[in-house]
Each structure stands twice: as C-alpha cells, then as structure tokens.
C-alpha cells in the first residue's frame, strides 16, 4: 500500500514538473504567405524558446513534408542564450507543384526531462497553390520558332572561295596539259636562240621559199602560211615574243603595246598577216602582185628590224683600244 502511494506521488511530481517547464517553453511556426503560384518558393520560420537545462529535439527534415510540400533547403539552427533561456531559430524554403488547397501538419518537437519524454507540436498551417491562367488573347497555339541564324561573314566565305579558285586553276592546268600532250608539244617551252642571227635564218628561208614558186603552182595557202611562219620564227628569236603560239591579232597587239618596232614596220606585219588570214579561211583569192607584195613585205620587215652585228675588224679594234687604255 505504501509502495503504491510512493509510485503515484512520483508520477504526479514528474507531470507537475513537466507542466511547470512547459510554461517556460514557447514554440511557433509560421509561413510567410498562404497563396503561391505553382512552383513558387515560400518560407517557414520556426522559433523555439526554452530553459537551457531542458533538451528539445528539432524534427529531422528530409526533402518533403507530408501533403505535397517539398523542402528546397533548411538552414542551420541558430541559437542565442538570454538570461538562461535558449532562443532557437530555423528557416525552411518550401515549394509545391500540386494545385489546390494544402495543409502543413503539426511538427513534433521531443522534450527530454530526466527519464521522462514528452512532445510539443506546432500549429496547423494552410496555403493555396494556384496555376498560371491561360492567355485568352492567344487564339491559336503556335509552333516553336526555329533558332535565328547569324549572317555569314566574308571571312566564313573565304575558304570556299579559295577552294573554288584552286579547283578552277587545277582544271585549267589539266586542260592545258592535255592540249599540249595531244599536239605532242612540251608543257613549257623556252625560246632557244639559234647560233646564227635571226635575220640570217629568215633571209635564207625566204630565199628558199621564193625558189619553190608555190603560188605559181597554185599552192597559194601553203605559200602564205610559210611566209608568215618564217616571220613568226624571226619575231620569236629577234624579240623574245612567243609568236609561234600566238594568233596574228595577238602578235600585232603585242607590237602596238610596246616599242619593239616603228609604225611603218608594224604596217608591213599587218599587211602580211591580214592577207594570209584571208587566204587561210578562203575569204580571198589574191592577185599575183599581192603574192609578191607579201614576200617583199617580209624581206623589208626583217631588214628594217634586224640586229646589226659588229664585224671581226671592228671587234678586234675595240679589243686593241681596250688593251691600250
């Protein structure tokens, strides 16, 4: 009987002490808004005041609170002691992605007094989650616009331009090679001057052509072709102009744009080449005087433009004078 009385008294005193301590404990939790748009953030502030000789456990927060509340972050518990009272603070950043009204259930804080354990709770809190209203001004649903393309600069075009020019140059080189190969000509030709002066060779070949009497035998085209070929070789050796590879107009243009010969000699060339081209394309049947005129013009052109050579006596005299000095 006495033991039962002692046990009852012990529990009574313990409950009384908890009640006394509870009067010195203040727990509060509040949210900074009760209405948010879906996905918005809001804060829950928890404050706890308690005697310093009591241990109270804060809830351990994970990533969610029941009823569709997500915890984005939880601050450390801030502790300040004032006159033997502990003031504890913690802030939670929350969000929700479910529309409609929601309830935050009370949070449990566990009190430890000696061997006795008790629990205090926060109050219930309510909030509303709203969705974003549709824009009624937009009648049609538009497709996603493609990304804008930046204008292409000349620097970006340059590699393609250079590549194109390189391909064109390669095509021209291949065409030139095949053309030369078909004609059995060397790819590059270097003008090699003969040992004899150009005018000596030209005079000799003109004399030989004159002896053939081609135009008198009716071989008019062959005659004028050989006259112009002799003059072309003479021009090539005398003036270093690749006349054998040029047309008549190209040769005349070369002389007009340079000081290689006088206008009188250019006129002789023009007469020879013009008549030869007319015969070549069967556009003219020259008279006998015109045949002779082409030969005379050829002799005159070579004679007027030949290079004067010093005789052996003049060369020896120059050498003696040099030694004397």
Structure description:
- The protein has 325 residues and is of the alpha+beta class.
- Among the domains are: 23-130, Immunoglobulins (Immunoglobulin-like), CATH 2.60.40.10; 198-307, no CATH class.
- Helices cover 44% and strands 22% of the residues.
- The protein contains 8 helices and 12 strands.
- The protein has helices spanning 2-22, 154-182, 198-212, 220-239, 248-256, 263-280, 288-305, 312-324; strands at 26-31, 35-37, 41-51, 55-57, 64-65, 69-74, 78-82, 85-95, 100-104, 108-113, 116-121, 125-130.
- Strands 1, 3, 5, 6, 7 and 8 form a 6-stranded antiparallel beta sheet that branches.
- Strand 10 and strand 11 form a beta hairpin.
- The termini are far apart.
- Residues 310-325 have low confidence and may be disordered.
């Amino acid at each position: 009987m006495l033991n039962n009385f002692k046990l009852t008294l012990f529990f009574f005193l313990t409950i009384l002490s908890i009640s006394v301590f509870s009067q010195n404990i203040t727990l509060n939790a509040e949210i900074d808004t009760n209405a948010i748009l879906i996905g918005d953030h809001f804060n829950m502030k928890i404050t706890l005041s308690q005697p310093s000789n009591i241990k109270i456990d804060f809830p351990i927060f994970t990533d969610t609170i029941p009823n569709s509340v997500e915890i984005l972050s939880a601050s450390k518990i801030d502790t300040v002691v004032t006159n033997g009272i502990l003031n504890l603070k913690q802030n939670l950043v929350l969000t929700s992605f479910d529309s409609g009204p929601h309830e935050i259930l009370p949070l449990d804080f566990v009190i430890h007094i000696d061997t006795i354990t008790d629990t205090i709770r926060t109050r219930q809190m309510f909030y509303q989650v709203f969705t974003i209203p549709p824009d009624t001004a937009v009648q049609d649903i538009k497709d996603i616009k493609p990304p804008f393309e930046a204008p292409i600069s000349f620097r970006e075009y340059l590699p393609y331009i250079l590549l194109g020019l390189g391909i064109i140059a390669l095509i021209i080189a291949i065409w030139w090679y095949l053309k030369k190969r078909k004609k059995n000509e060397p790819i590059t030709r270097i003008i090699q001057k003969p040992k004899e002066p150009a005018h000596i060779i030209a005079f000799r070949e003109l004399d030989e052509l004159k002896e053939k009497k081609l135009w008198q035998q009716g071989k008019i085209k062959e005659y004028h072709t050989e006259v112009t070929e002799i003059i072309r070789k003479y021009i090539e050796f005398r003036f270093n102009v690749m006349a054998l590879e040029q047309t008549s107009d190209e040769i005349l243009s070369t002389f007009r744009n340079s000081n290689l010969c006088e206008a009188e000699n250019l006129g002789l060339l023009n007469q020879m080449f013009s008549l030869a081209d007319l015969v070549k394309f069967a556009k003219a049947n020259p008279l006998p005087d015109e045949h002779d005129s082409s030969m005379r013009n050829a002799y005159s052109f070579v004679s007027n433009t030949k290079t004067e050579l010093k005789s052996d006596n003049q060369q020896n005299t120059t050498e003696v004078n040099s030694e004397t000095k």
